[in-house]
Amino acid sequence: MRLIKVLALACLLMLSISAYAERLASQNWVADLNGQTNEAYTANDSKSSFGVFCSGEKCLFYLHQSLKCDPGTKYSVLMNSQTVSTALSMECTQIGGNLFQILDPFEAVLRATQAGEMIGFAVALQSGAFAVNRFSLVGAKPAIERALLEAAKSKFREQKQAPESAPKAPLKDISI
Questions:
Q1: DSSP character for 67?
Q2: Closest listed residue to residue 114, CA positions, set 24, 52, 33
Q3: Cα separation of 101 and 119, whole Å?
Q4: Collapsing DSSP states into helix, strand and coil, what is residue 9?
Q5: With respect to CATH, is domain 2-157 assigned 2.60.40.1880?
Q6: Whole-angstrom distance between the N-terminal and C-terminal Cα of the chain?
Q7: How would residue 66 be classed by pLDDT, with cut points 50, 70 and 90?
Q8: Which side of the chain, N or C, has fewer Cβ within a 10 Å radius?
Q9: Residue-wise pLDDT tens digits, 92-139
């Protein structure tokens, strides 16, 4: 879990300072691609966003919403789409002045984004109520697949640039 937090911080920090080489629209989704950092995301009417962010070949799903949370704290969230309904864990991460919630497990969120038109997240509040955010999935599948494909390609770009004699650390592959 500590690796996820470190990766999330590094990835989202890089997101805030990097310039994208390519921006592709896919209906209600946008894919920002530059090889080393790749992101596919959408926003809703309440200015919350949901997406996948990749730094190198490491990827994570996130929510960015107006809810206050304590950085480093884990919360439960209910996710619902046409194909998947499940409870997830989310970890609050602060990048600059913005709070992001990193969603886990990655595979469950990925499955939920692959079909249907909407996805929703319900977060329990201290008052006993729920904060609900819904996002369009129209255009999500091709945008997310493109971001994951570019992330997977980054592994091969790194291997080509690395000297032959340099030891290679084991890496977790991204499944598309």
A1: -
A2: 52
A3: 16
A4: helix
A5: yes
A6: 22
A7: confident
A8: N
A9: 998 788 899 999 999 999 999 999 999 999 998 888 889 999 999 999
Q: Which residues, other chains included, contact 67 with Cβ-Cβ below 8 Å and sequence gap of 6+?
A: 99, 101, 123, 125, 131
SS3 assignment for 139-151: CHHHHHHHHHHHH
3-state secondary structure of 76: strand
**pTM value?**
0.79
Q: Are 83 and 115 in contact (CB under 8 A)?
A: yes
Helix, strand, or coil here: 90? strand
Domain locations in the chain as residue ranges: 2-157
Q: State which amino acid sits at residue 171.
A: L
What are the strands of the beta sheet with 85-95, ordered from one edge? 22-26, 29-33, 37-43, 49-55, 58-64, 98-104, 85-95, 74-81, 118-124, 130-136
